[in-house]
Amino acid sequence: MLTSHEPVALLNPFERDRDPHSPNRNLTPLTTALDSEGRLVVGGCLLSDLARDYGTPLYVLDEATLRGTCRAYREALAEHYPGHALAIYASKANSSLAITALVASEGLGLDAVSAGELLTALQGGMPAERIVLHGNNKSREELALAAEQGVTVVADNWRDLELLAALAPDLQRPVQLMLRFTPGIECHTHEYIRTGHLDSKFGFDPDQLAAVLKHLATCSWAQLTGLHAHIGSQIFELQPHRDLAGVMADALALARSLGHPVVDLNVGGGLGIRYTTSDDPPSISEWVRTVAEAVAAACQERGLELPRLLCEPGRSLVASGGVTLYEVGSRKDIPGIRTYLSVDGGMSDNPRPITYQSQYTAVLADRPTAEATETVTVAGKHCESGDVLLKDLALPPAGSGDVLAVFATGAYNASMSSNYNRIPRPAAVLVHDGVADLVQRREQPEDLLRYDVLPTRLRSVK
Ligand SMILES: Cc1ncc(COP(=O)(O)O)c(C=O)c1O
Ligand SMILES: N[C@@H](CCCC[NH3+])C(=O)O
Fold it and tell me: What are the boundaries of the region Disordered (predicted)?
């Protein structure tokens, strides 16, 4: 019999080299353990108890893992970069008041891409001077909110600059500005999440950089603080990040030669994580060391004073700290073809499989190490045949009432969720030392009617 909270050693081969400094390399949260009956525990909380108490689907976030990833970035930057450095959380990965507060308390900054993410950041306690606003089509209102609050705006195009110039007379202070440009760097990842190649909607074309920099030298309302580029997401290679350092150092040299005392170089995010045992991403410290050494070397080669180094991780900060719990409902055995287990969520709480054909790892919460004797396909409850969360998953015999735990769902699940089929979004709990705090209430079907308006003339239609 396994003892209480013994670390789960058998879930995947990499758990043996479980490294608290590289939580992005673990499939499961750092605190994953088994209780005396062999049931899964995360953050000291029994997962099947959480499912019973809060209902399913349920997003579970492990505070120790989230803090662990923040510290891994912070400490690696302090160790490997000789100048100042700051990791900025790309909150598109998972935006909430609780995550903002946690990330802020770990000393990180935050990247927002909309008024919604920006308000969440400000109300979650992130200091405005540590926030940057991104976006390839920012509204006037979004730019005004950022500029009034003293948030740094990452200008993506000429329209951003035109809108800001128009807002400037009403502002109390110059707008803190970074320039995003397309670095022309290819990397291997899903085509939907590549951003560094020239055919990208994000950022100024590199050929325009000199013109923009010259224009900004004439804008008294703007203070250019930095340059930004981002090559994509869920990237395992390190070389594209080294290449990016050279491209950015060239841009920095150009900006300084045109009279901009640029202090920040923001190299974006993109470090991948482990979704299945065959994924093998670099650790956070390896990624940071590579980026930091490449930036320092590229600047030194060009005789440039070292800028502050900013990076913008999203997925690698929050994915591995998240587990989603579902209850299994119906089961359909099609002899010789497939067995479907349907769960009470699906593409509305995790659209990544249907969008990017992403793969996940899952176990039964109360029998995680039982012998897997069946191969099943886990389907969601949406009216869509492609609503499949996991294909060909090896499981012990499972059926109605079993709780399924899907790992590495802390990034781009809640934040990409929808109400397709008018299914309410799940609740989220933050677990720590045996305590679960509700951080996002479960939507109710009535909530989904809140914004519907039934015109009077239709009310009498029978
Ligand atoms: C501008 C920007 N910064 C940071 C990120 C975060 O990327 P990731 O979640 O892959 O670390 C993204 C998303 O790809 C992004 O578009
Ligand atoms: N939504 C993507 C990542 C997008 C990164 C944003 N620039 C994913 O789930 O993998």
Answer: 1-27
